[in-house]
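Section 3.1: Structural characterization of target chains.
Under the original work plan, the team committed to producing a structural model for every single-chain target entering the pipeline before any wet-lab resources were allocated. The record below documents one such target. The sequence was received from the expression subgroup and is listed exactly as submitted; it comprises 434 residues.
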Amino acid sequence: MERVKVTAAVFEESARPLRNPNRGFYYIYQFHITDQETDYNDLVERFYYGDTETTLALVQINLKEYRAQEISPAGLKNIDALFNALAQRDKQLIVRFLYDWEQKNLLTEPASLDLILQHMEQLGEILNRYSDSIFTLQGLFVGDWGEMHSTRYESPQELRRLAQKLAEITGGYLSVRTPAQWRQITEDGADTALVARLGLFNDGILGSETDLGTYGVGGLEDQRRSRAEELAFQETLCCGVPNGGEVVIENPFNDFENAVRDLSAMHITYLNRAYDQEVMDKWAAKVMQSGCFQGVDGLSYIERHLGYRLLISGVKAEWKAFRNQIIVKVFLRNEGFAPVYVEPEMTIALRGADGSLAGEYLVRYGGLRELSGGTDSEKKVTLQAAISGKGLAQGHYNLYLTLEDPASGQNILLANTQDIGPYGYCLGGMEVYR
C-alpha cells in the first residue's frame, strides 16, 4: 500500500502588476464608419501601436453617416472588417456606438427612434459573431459622445425600448450612464433579465460632489439621489455587473484617499488612462507607506486594484488513504475594487516531476464572483478538488492550479509572490512511497 506525504506551499501577497483580461486602464480608439472601403487591419495596427500595457480598449464607432437611413451593406461590411481586425489583437473591447463626437448630437442623431432601433437590429449579427472580444457595450447609441444626455430620446420609456432592443440582439454586458437611468430602464429592478446584464459607465467620476450631474444633491431630481446614496447603490449593484469610465477635473473628491475609498465602493473595473492627466499626476505623487505596496506610487496602486486582483491566501492538501485521494483546498481572496465578471475556467492538476499529467480536476465552482472585492476584500472562497491516487508510481509529484479566461484563453495571474509556471501555480508537492 502506498505511503504518501503531502506538503502545501506557503503563499504571500505581492504588489506586482498583473496583466489580466477585462480590467485595468484603457485608451480610446475612434472609428467613423462610411461606405468607403478601409483597410482596418492597417488602421487598428497604427492605432494600437505603442499601447502595450493595457488589456482593454474603448472602441467608439460613429454612425452619423447613417442618421437618415439604414446602415448600408458597405457600412456593415466595414463594421465587420473593423471587428475582425480588433479581434486579431490581444485586447478585450468596451464598445460604444454613437452619432456625435462634437457635442452636437441633436444635429447628428437620427430623427426617428425606430431608425436607431433598426441600426441596432442590423448590428446584432456582427456583435454576436465577435462576442468573445467584447467585454461590455457602453450606452444606447444616443447623446453627446454617446453619453445618453443632450438627446431627444431621454424619457424612461424611450431609454427602456433602446436597452431592451440592445439586450435582445446581444448576449453580454450592457451599461448606461447613470444609476437613475439604470433604475428607470429596469423599472427599479423589476426587469430581472436586464438587471443581470446592465451595468454602469461614468465619464465624470470624482469630478464633483455629483460626479458632474451623475448624482443629485439630495431628494429625487429625475430619480437622481445624493452622492452617498448612489455610492451605496453602486456598491450593491456592481457586485454583479461592471462599472468604469473616466476620472475628471482635479479637485478634493479625487484626492488619493478619497479616490480609493469611492472607487472601491463603486467596484470600478476600468478607467481611461489618458484622462484626466492632472488627476493621474496627483495620484502618481502619492507614495504608499505600508504593507506589500510600501514604496509604490498611488497611480500604480490604483491601477493594480482596478477590477479583480485575486490571490491565494492559503492551501491545504491532505492524503486520504482510505479513499486513495489527495484532497486539495485552495483559499482565494480578491484585493481588487471589483469582482471577476467573467467566471474563469479553473483546473487543479497533479503532475509528475517530469511534468507528465497524473490526475486532473476541472473545478466546477460558480461562486468565484462572490469575491466582490472593494470594501469586502477579506472575504474568502474555497476551491476544492479530490485527485485520485490510483496507480501512482513511487516518486515526487506537484499540484498545480490554473485559472483561464474563457473568451481569450489567457491565464488569470494571481497577486502572490509566487510566479506562474508552465503548468500554473504550484500548490505544493507530494512523495509516494511503497
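The radius of gyration is 24 Å.
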